[in-house]
C-alpha cells in the first residue's frame, strides 16, 4: 500500500502532452481507464461478496494513489470511504467510473457521467447484446459518442494497471491472484479466460503491465486497445485473447504497424467456419473464416498461439533479448533430455549449433573428464551450480551460439537452489536469450516460479521450449534484429533457417 | 462474368491466360483448332454452366480436325437443353506443375487471395496458403514457400524447378485485381507453372 508510484501523475501529464501530436482521440481518453486521477465506483456495496464491494476493496487495499468515490444512494460509508448518492453529488472532478448496476439503469447513469465530464467508463454489467439486448447497447454507444467517453464493456470483468494499483476486476484477490508488475499487456474478450490467465500468471510469477477484459466492445474494441498498448510505455509484449474481430481490415493494418515495435501474441478462439464444400468455387471451399484469420495473423506478423499453454509459453519468452539467429546450444545435467531437446530443435527448424573449438577447449579444461563436450553439452548428473555457471558463461560467449536452452533437472543430489542464482546472474548480462527447461514436481515448480519471476522463461518440456524459441526467432527475423542490433555484430552469421516440420 | 469482360480484366492486370478462341459452330471450332495448332482442348462456353467437367463439357488432347468435330458434337449432346454461347478452343498447354490461384471475399477481412497445389491435390490435401488483399511481394514469396508441397515447386524427383518469381508476380497482380474489382469469387484452376513463366489455363469469376 505504502511507498510507491510517486511518478504516476508525472506519467499522466507526459502522456497527455504527447497525445496531442500523435495519438488518436479515443486512445487519449482510454488512458484515463488505466491512469485515472480519481475514480467513482457506481454500484458500490457494503456487503462482502458483492461485485460492488470487491471492486471498492481492490482500490482501498491496493496501491492506488488517486481519489476513490463509492456511489450508492443507500450507504453513507463503504470500507471507510465517504459514499455518494450519485455522480453529480461529487464536487470534485471524476476521471473515470466503474459501473456495476443493473442493465436497465446503465444508460441513464452513463449519461449523468457524461454530463459530469467523465472521460472513461468500465461497464461491468451484463445483460446487453450478449443476451439480445442490442437496444441497450446501442444507447450506450450513442451516449459514449455524444460525450466522448471511452467505454470498456459492457459485460466485462474489469481492467487493471498493476503499476498504478488500478483494479476493477471483480473477483476477490483471495480467490484470484493478481500478477506482479511486469511488461506484458493482456487484452481479453472473455472475462473467464482473462481471470484464468491472471490467476495462472500470478502463480507462475509472470508479470503484467496492464489487463483489460473488454466484453461486448460496444465502444472500445480490440483494435483500439491494441493501438493503446502500442503507445503504452510500460507494455513491451502484447497478448490477446480474441473470439472475433469487429473491424477486420483496421485490425490488420494496426497490427501490421504494432508488430514492428512490439510482439503481439494472439489466441483466437472459435476460429470459425472452415471453408464450405458447398461453395461455388474451389477457393471458397478452401478458404473459410478460420483460414482467413490465420492468414491475417501471418500477414501482420502476429504470433499465433493455439492453446492457453502456448499463449503463456510464447508470451514469456519475449522478456528475453531477441536472438540474432537460430543456433541453439543446449546445456543439460541429464543426457536423455538433451537428446529430446536436439530432436525438438530440429523439428522446429532450429539449428543445433557446433560449439567453437575455443569453447570446447576451455570446457574440456574446466569440466570433469567424464563430461561430454559437444552440443547438447552434458554436465552429467553430479553437476552442481558452479559447473552450470562455468558452462553457461563459456557457451553464452561462443560466437556460434544465438540462443541458450538450459536443462535443469532439480532432482539430482548435487543440485540445489544456488543454480537459480547462477542462471539469474548469467541472464542479467542480457546478451543472448536464455530459456530453462525443467521437468519435475513440487520442488522443480518452486524453482521455475522464481526463474519466471526474474523473466527467465521456464518450460516443462523440450518441445514447448523449442516451439517458443522458434516463434521468437521468426519475430526477431521479421523486425531485422540481426542487421540492426549491435549485439549481433559479434556473432557469426548463422545459416538460413529451415522450415518447421 | 462473361468471357469478354473476363479477358479484358486479365489483360488489365497482366494476368497470363492460355490463348483461346470462341467458336460458335462446329466448322468454326475446326478452323480455330487448325489455326492454334494441335493438340487442342474444347470447353463448353455457357454462363449457365459452372462445373464444365462434371457434365461432360470439356474434351482434352484433341489431335486432328476429325477429333475436334466429334468432340464438338459430344459436348453439344451433353449440354442439350442449356443455353450455350459456343465452345472455347484452346491449344493444349504443355506439361508443367498444376497449381491453383484463387480469391474470395471474407466477411471479416474482405478480399483474400489463395495459392496452392492444383489438380487432385486441391481437394484432397487442401495444401493452400492465403493472404488478405492487397499483398506485397514479401507476402507472395511467403505464400509460395508456405505450402507443404513446396518441394514440388523446387523440382522434386529430378524435375526442373518452376518459375516462382512468375508465380509471385501473378499472385500480386491477382490480389490487386481482387482488391480493386470487388470480385466475389475467383478460380484460376489450373495455373500451370513452367521452368520459365506460368499461365492460367482455366478461369472462373463469380461477380
What features would you describe in this structure?
- The complex is a heterodimer of chains A (501) and B (207).
- With 501 residues, chain A is α/β, with parallel strands linked by helices.
- Chain A contains 18 helices and 20 strands.
- Chain B is of the alpha+beta class.
- Chain B is built from seven helices and ten strands.
- Chain B has helices at residues 3-12, 26-36, 65-78, 120-125, 137-146, 150-153, 164-181; strands spanning 20-23, 40-45, 58-62, 86-91, 97-106, 110-117, 128-132, 185-193, 198-200, 203-206.
- In chain B, the strands form two sheets. In chain B, strands 5, 6, 7, 8, 9 and 10 form a six-stranded antiparallel sheet that branches.
- Chain B is globular, with a radius of gyration of 17 Å.
- The N and C termini of chain B lie close together (6 Å).
- Chain A binds chain B through residues 244-245, 248-249, 252, 275, 279-287, 289, 291-296, 298-299, 499, and chain B through 50, 100, 102-104, 106-110, 112, 114, 116, 122-123, 126, 128-132, 135, 139, 142, 145, 150, 185-187, 189, 204, 206.
Chain-wise SSE layout:
The complex is a heterodimer of chains A (501) and B (207).
Chain A: H1 8-22, H2 25-34, E1 38-42, H3 51-61, E2 67-71, E3 77-78, E4 81-82, E5 96-99, H4 106-116, E6 120-123, H5 134-146, E7 150-152, E8 158-161, E9 166-167, E10 181-188, H6 191-204, E11 208-213, H7 222-231, E12 237-242, H8 248-258, E13 264-268, H9 282-286, H10 289-299, E14 303-305, H11 308-317, E15 327-332, H12 335-347, E16 351-352, H13 357-366, E17 377-378, H14 385-396, E18 403-407, H15 418-427, E19 434-437, H16 442-453, E20 458-459, H17 462-478, H18 481-484
Parallel strand pairs in A: 1-2, 1-5, 5-6, 6-7, 10-11, 10-12, 12-13, 13-14, 15-16, 15-17, 15-18, 18-19, 19-20
Antiparallel strand pairs in A: 3-4, 8-9, 8-11
Helix pairs in contact in A: 1-2, 2-7, 4-5, 7-8, 11-17, 12-17, 13-14, 14-15
Chain B: H1 3-12, E1 20-23, H2 26-36, E2 40-45, E3 58-62, H3 65-78, E4 86-91, E5 97-106, E6 110-117, H4 120-125, E7 128-132, H5 137-146, H6 150-153, H7 164-181, E8 185-193, E9 198-200, E10 203-206
Antiparallel strand pairs in B: 1-4, 2-3, 2-4, 5-6, 5-8, 6-7, 8-9, 8-10
Helix pairs in contact in B: 2-3, 5-7
